[in-house]
Design a protein that fits this description.
Layout (H helix, E strand, L loop, with lengths): L5 H19 L22 H5 L1
């Protein structure tokens, strides 16, 4: 199974959500994402702490 690199994943999420946002409300047709992104990972042992 192939996994996309982080930048490609974020690009696709931003693209898809922008289309969804702009398609739902004409007043949001000028919506744009800020440049850049942040990505974080956690281990299974940290899952409960993150949920809290």
């Amino acid at each position: 199974m192939r996994h996309p690199d982080c930048s490609r994943l974020v690009k696709e999420v931003k693209r898809g959500s922008s289309l969804w946002i702009k398609g739902g409300d004409w007043s949001l047709h000028g919506f744009t994402w800020q440049n850049g992104y942040g990505m974080f990972s956690i281990g299974c042992s940290q899952l409960e702490a993150v949920r809290d």
